[in-house]
Design a protein that fits this description.
alpha+beta; Cytidine Deaminase, domain 2; 2 domains; four-stranded mixed β-sheet; binds zinc ion
């Protein structure tokens, strides 16, 4: 088991510990398949809602919060039945704008794993305004169910009344919709991963597609796609998307060996400087940029 889960795991009820023990290996991918969820429910007698709440401390254990020491965990339930972990992330030496919220982490995790829509988000603290707006970019719209400990089930519409979103700007392709921008994918594995991430990015407001791919010492690659928001500020940069996957896979954000950013040199928005600055704060001094074609 990854050391970060040990304390949260020790506090779980014994039947749940027994059901989770074989799954929480060193290479646990921070999501459960529908089949695994069904098996855990059968073994523990918990229903889906009870089980998801019980798993929140494990998601929160993935937080990287050197600034706040405030661990937020989120779980995104996909239409496919998969349950994806998410947790907040902060980066010492970068700006506050570079931080990632737990809901953004869970949503982006589901998206980059190929999920096509979300049913529900469960969080251990009430979603901040920023995250309510971020989630309103999803193709589930305000019907997304929000589950909080001790509260009645509600929808995003309940938490974000009179919402402003992509539909107000006549945007038809929403976050988690399948997209293929038709970019040419060539280069070595890391460059291709960055280009493929850009090819799936959600940038309907600027058209400034971008993707980042990060390589670790053991060769593992994590690629993140840019996700814009109708309200602009809750947009998630491609580096953060890649860092979410890296962290949830159990890797250390301070151990990145190589980084590639794919974007057009003449795009209306440019990620390069912000990406390089945050990478530098994480001890990764060089950022290779590849132009989109
Ligand atoms: Zn938030």
């Amino acid at each position: 088991m990854q050391p970060r889960f040990q304390a949260a795991f020790a506090a779980l009820p014994s039947p749940l510990q027994a059901a989770l023990q074989p799954l929480l290996t060193d290479t646990f991918p921070a999501f459960f398949t529908p089949e695994q969820m069904a098996a855990i429910r059968t073994e523990t007698g918990l229903d889906n809602r009870e089980l998801t709440f019980a798993l929140l401390p494990l998601a929160a254990a993935c937080a990287v919060a050197p600034l706040s020491r405030f661990n937020v965990g989120a779980l995104a339930l996909g239409r496919s039945g998969h349950l994806y972990f998410g947790a907040n992330m902060e980066f010492s030496g970068a700006t506050m704008q570079q931080t990632v919220h737990a809901e953004q982490s869970a949503v982006t995790h589901a998206w980059l794993r190929g999920e096509k829509g979300l049913e529900a988000i469960t969080v251990n603290y009430t979603p901040c305004g920023h995250c309510r707006q971020f989630m309103n970019e999803l193709n589930s719209g305000t019907a997304l169910r929000i589950h909080l400990p001790g509260r009645e089930p509600a929808t995003l519409g309940d938490y974000l009344p009179d919402a402003f979103g992509p539909r107000d700007l006549a945007i038809e392709t929403l976050l988690l919709d399948e997209v293929d921008h038709g970019l040419t994918i060539t280069g070595d594995a890391l460059v291709r991963a960055a280009l493929e991430a850009a090819n799936r990015s959600h940038a309907p407001y600027s058209q400034a597609l971008s993707g980042v791919a990060l390589q670790m010492a053991d060769g593992a690659i994590f690629a993140g796609s840019y996700a814009e928001n109708a309200a602009f500020n809750p947009s998630l940069p491609p580096l953060q998307a890649a860092l979410i996957l890296l962290n949830l896979a159990g890797y250390d954000v301070l151990q990145i060996q190589r980084a590639v950013l794919a974007e057009a040199p003449d795009a209306r928005l440019i990620q390069r400087q912000a990406t390089a600055a945050t990478l530098q704060a994480l001890g990764c001094a060089t950022l290779q940029t590849v132009p989109l074609r």
